Amino acid sequence: MKKTFTVNLGNMVFSIDDDAYLVLKDYLDSIEEYFSADKDKEDIMNDIEGRISEILSSLTNPGKQVINIKDIDHVISIMGDPLEIGGSEKKAQTSYRSEYRSRPGRLYRDPDDRVIGGVCSGLGAYFDIDPLIIRIIFIILFFVFFGFIIYLVLWIAVPEARTTSQKIEMRGDPVNVSNIGKFVKDEYESVKRSFRGKKKNN
Q1: Are 50 and 165 in contact (CB under 8 A)?
Q2: For 65-104, what is each residue's pLDDT tens digit?
Q3: Start-to-end Cα distance in the chain
């Protein structure tokens, strides 16, 4: 007989047996320790927990309600071992956006680089080309074909990348601890640069 705990992870509630709970707690503690020096540690941990909850949610169904140690092992195999997060010094200093594309991206609208609805920047990320090229194509189509209608259909049909996981998926990178950490840090630095730029202009 095993004890079962109820945990809130990424705003989702799960039932988890005692062995799995201990492994998951140790795993999250080791990740938190790794990012302990980062100012944006809380945001990174929230996004990592959100991603873990997505994976665990996909493993539950009406016939399987309790998370076991096999499920946690599966999570760790996807998210990565905390001891290997940093990798080499060179990799640790590389933005996740400049690393290899491990697989085709998933099509989303990009809210962070949009002119109107983020369709062109989303297509650019999906096909790994400059969004400006996509925008020029749509401008041409607007005059010679039904470019506006195509854009409008894509705007309605393609979901917006809202979460960190979706934004990483959009660029074709694996959604793991390393890439989530890099993404949040890049976003934090981008906001700082933007704030400094506005301050200088004022």
Answers
A1: yes
A2: 899 999 999 999 999 876 665 544 334 333 333 344 445 5
A3: 66
Rounded CA gap, 183 and 139, in Å? 31
Residue 125 is predicted with a pLDDT of 85
Chain mean pLDDT for the chain: 81
- The token duo for 96 is 């996740």
Q: SS3 sequence, the chain?
A: CCCEEEEEECCEEEEEEHHHHHHHHHHHHHHHHHCCCCCCHHHHHHHHHHHHHHHHHHHCECCECEECHHHHHHHHHHHCCHHHCCCCHHHHCCCHHHCCCCCCCCCCECCCCCCCCCHHHHHHHHHCCCHHHHHHHHHHHHHHCCHHHHHHHHHHHCCECCCHHHHHHHCCCCCCHHHHHHHHHHHHHHHHHHHHHHHHHC
pLDDT at 20: 93
Please report, for the chain, the start and end positions of each structural domain, with discontinuous segments joined by +: 4-101, 119-157
Do 131 and 119 form a contact (C-beta atoms < 8 A)?
no
What band does 15 get if pLDDT is binned at 50, 70 and 90? very high
What pairing do the DSSP bridges indicate for beta strands 66-67 and 12-17?
parallel
The amino acid present at 84, given as its one-letter code, is: E
CA R_g for the chain: 20
- Tell me the mean pLDDT in the region 177-202: 71
